[in-house]
Automatic annotation (TrEMBL):
UniProt-annotated stretches for the region Disordered: 387-539
Record-annotated Lariat debranching enzyme C-terminal domain positions: 235-380
CDD domains according to UniProt: MPP_Dbr1_N (cd00844)
Protein name: DBR1 enzyme
Cofactor(s) the protein requires to work: Fe(2+); Zn(2+); Mn(2+)
Family: Belongs to the lariat debranching enzyme family.
Name of the gene this protein is made from: Dbr1
Main location: nucleus
Organism of this sequence: Thinocorus orbignyianus
Biased composition range(s): Basic and acidic residues: 387-396, 486-506
Keywords from the UniProt entry: Hydrolase, Iron, Manganese, Metal-binding, mRNA processing, Nucleus, Zinc
Residue stretches of biased makeup (Acidic residues): 397-406, 432-443
Top-level taxon: Eukaryota
Bias-annotated ranges (Polar residues): 416-428
């Protein structure tokens, strides 16, 4: 079957679907499925805009609300993951995944589904070491910190995905797996984006958590976005035994939706011709969710996932064939995901703008139904309970309770990713500086149709086969820059003021006299990333 893969669409759904229709008319190519690798921006109304981590001047309604309201319907089944520029309050309603509009499905914080026999997995958000070991504690209305931490990857999602044993056909992440640039045309990448050089040479570009998943899952395809450049790589994995067949992953990163043709790619994927056309649950993934349900954490307490280090009674949460069979029996062998989309918020009305609409914490009926069906914890319900209990106990008592951690995990263990990055000098490129004055990023919609003289290139050119080196294994040195962590904690003196946040910017922690130079460095780097349109004209 033909699968279309898109990079960051930034809410420009009309343009994305128009491009697909143009391909069909001019080249007789019609995809069966569309995958989007984050920064989807499922914005329903003005309140959602205020929950999106971008400067106020880039908060545009775009066109998703038309699909949410039913005015339009996606012409092709669309499956997406979250990035770092999303209506976080909306996606938070669906931690296990669900429909954000008819025919548009969100994979959740992490998820695996099936379509026509093809197994598709993904993880939402981007990696930040200082939030990696926390629970999903954020809820709207967000403050200066939580509006960003809400989209940071957590170790529990990586842990769940690492319990999978069956092969994955396609996997999506927003940020790139760290070190993947060593398996493609690195010279050409640095020619196009020279400001990546420091991070590439120091091997700090990308996510160590995604790299760990790549090494464990070994999917046939891995798609990413985030860095706004098209890049292909081919990685052959090392085998664990002589009996194990060699596996390889084709990696492709897509550009953002701009008036050029690198934000969309069409690939042919082998599928089961006898499978139906409905999106389906994955039985092994459901079994893993059930097995790891007691690990759910909705506090800011940092802890590591169970591992075989003598501190945990159980560390292997992978599931047996019997557990998978039980899931199938629960569903009467009908894995079809119900089309149970429900409106949970007012839809934007251009004739009646409501600029003062406030975001609220909502429990989505889809999540309620899903959790009830499989006996899972509704994360948002747990968060609301914690908030209500905290208001009764008082702040001091609540903090004491948050120090207690489930016996299956430990808050005292060191992180698997070292968070002491004082010795690193490079700036983490995976986090976009939200500086309103600098105008670091352009989230404007596509405004130019694809040129009929330059149809999209459907074939990704992969590099020569290379063996994964030991450097791909995540170590304690795989850490992100503490300068960026400090910037996030500070809120920044130049941060755009937003009344919806209801909090004053936090002061910088520590006595770093060179903090301003760090801000300028991030700004220069991101100005280079988001000058893609002008750069394309000169290349």
């Amino acid at each position: 079957m033909k699968v279309a893969v898109a990079g960051c669409c930034h809410g420009a759904l009309d343009k994305m679907y128009e491009t697909l229709e143009l391909l069909e008319r001019r080249h007789n190519v019609r995809p069966d499925l569309l995958l989007c690798c984050g920064d989807f921006q499922a914005v329903r109304n003005e309140a959602d805009l205020r929950c999106m981590a971008v400067p106020a001047k880039y908060r545009h309604m775009q066109t998703f609300y038309r699909y949410y309201s039913g005015e339009k319907k996606a012409p092709v089944l669309t499956v997406f993951i979250g990035g770092n520029h999303e209506a976080s309050n909306h996606l938070q309603e669906l931690p296990y995944g669900g429909w954000v509009a008819p025919n548009i499905y969100y994979l959740g914080y992490a998820g695996v589904v099936r379509f026509r026999g093809v197994r598709i997995g993904g993880i939402s958000g981007i990696f930040k070491s200082h939030d990696y070991r926390k629970g999903h504690f954020e809820c709207p209305p967000y403050n200066q910190q939580t509006i960003r931490s809400a989209y940071h990857v957590r170790n529990i999602e990586v842990f769940k995905l690492k319990q999978l044993k069956r092969p994955i056909d396609i996997f999506m992440s927003h940020d790139w797996p760290r070190s993947i640039y060593h398996y493609g045309n690195k010279k050409q990448l640095l020619k196009m984006k020279s400001f990546f050089r420091q991070e590439v040479e120091s091997n700090t570009l990308g996510s160590p958590a995604a790299s760990e998943l790549l090494q464990h899952l070994k999917p046939t395809y891995w798609f990413s976005a985030h860095l706004h450049v098209k890049f292909a790589a081919f990685m052959q994995h090392q085998t664990n035994s002589k009996e194990e067949l060699p596996k390889a992953t084709k990696f492709l990163a897509l550009d953002k939706c701009l008036p050029h043709r690198d934000f969309l790619q069409i690939i042919d994927v082998e599928h089961d011709p006898n499978a139906g056309d409905s999106l389906e649950y994955d039985a092994e993934w459901i079994a893993v969710l059930k097995a790891t349900n007691n690990l759910v954490n909705v506090t800011q307490t940092s802890w590591n996932m169970p591992e075989n280090n003598g501190l945990h009674a159980k560390w292997d949460y992978s599931v047996t064939e019997e557990a998978i069979k039980e899931v199938l029996e629960e569903l009467n062998h009908n894995l079809k995901i119900p089309c149970n989309f429900t409106l949970t918020a007012a839809c934007y009305d251009p004739s009646k703008p409501q600029k003062m609409m406030e975001p609220v914490h909502t429990i989505n009926p889809q999540t309620t139904e899903f959790c009830a069906q499989f006996g899972l914890t509704d994360i948002n319900d747990r968060i609301q309970q914690a908030k209500e209990e905290g208001s009764v106990r008082g702040e001091h008592e609540e903090e004491e309770e948050e120090e207690e951690v489930d016996s299956t995990g430990s808050a005292e263990e060191p992180s698997e990713y070292n968070t002491d990055n004082s010795g690193l000098s490079s700036i983490n490129p995976d986090e976009i500086m939200l500086d309103d004055e600098g105008g670091d990023e352009d989230l404007s919609t596509c405004s130019v149709d694809p040129s009929p003289d330059h149809p999209p290139d459907f074939s990704a050119s992969f590099s020569d086969i290379r063996i994964m080196p030991d450097s791909m294994a995540v170590s304690s040195d795989d850490a992100m820059d503490s300068t960026n962590e400090e910037l996030e904690k500070s809120g920044g003196s130049k941060q755009v003021e937003d009344k919806s946040l209801n909090e004053r910017p936090l002061k910088r922690i520590g006595g770093n006299e060179n903090g301003n130079s760090g801000i300028k460095k991030i700004k220069r780097r991101n100005q280079a990333i988001y000058a893609a349109e002008e750069e394309d004209k000169t290349e």
